[in-house]
Predict the 3D structure of the following.
Amino acid sequence: MRKMGAEWKKRILSLHRKAPEKVQSLQHFRDAAVLMPLVEKDRKLFLLFEVRSSSIAQGGEICFPGGRIEKNETAGDAALRETCEELCLTEDQVHLISPMHRMGAPGGGEVTSFLGTLSDYQGTYEKDEVDHVILVPLSFFAETEPKICQAKMCVALPDDFPCELIPGGKNYPFRSVPRTFYFYQTEQGVIWGMTAELVFNLIETLKEDGILS
């Protein structure tokens, strides 16, 4: 190894950079944002969900509109853009009320949720990504406790993982990460995973603020 010269040492020791907000070890993961859309119908408030198209990842699952935050875009911008794209809306039909929660995603990165409303929504959606949309009364979640289960997310080693390079080899004590899973069983399907967790946190916050009893 070439010895570090005095000039290189000086440059390194004088290095000063603005610290990033977060360093991710898995570069292909990026942060995302979702909108929890409220729709008023017959003087009642409903949460709108999408059922993912079978042609995309996690097809058939129920989720909120949203997606990755693009470069030079805020979380709110991403939630608005993705909602407009997936539900075929214009920006003036989507109103962001407030950011709600920010949590780590199971696959990496973080997801920021926003509460919002849709105006003059006519049931439209982008058919390449969305199979259909469903409306669930907000009162259902206020009155219904989800099924809650505990599980652990473990490391799954591929066949070509170089176990021989680490102490203990295949018996190395990789840590398993505990996680709480929420399930809401509705007439239109089961809402679970991060979507259910976002709903649970939303309802708890609204109750704490005295908005829901």
Remarks:
- The chain has a mean pLDDT of 86.
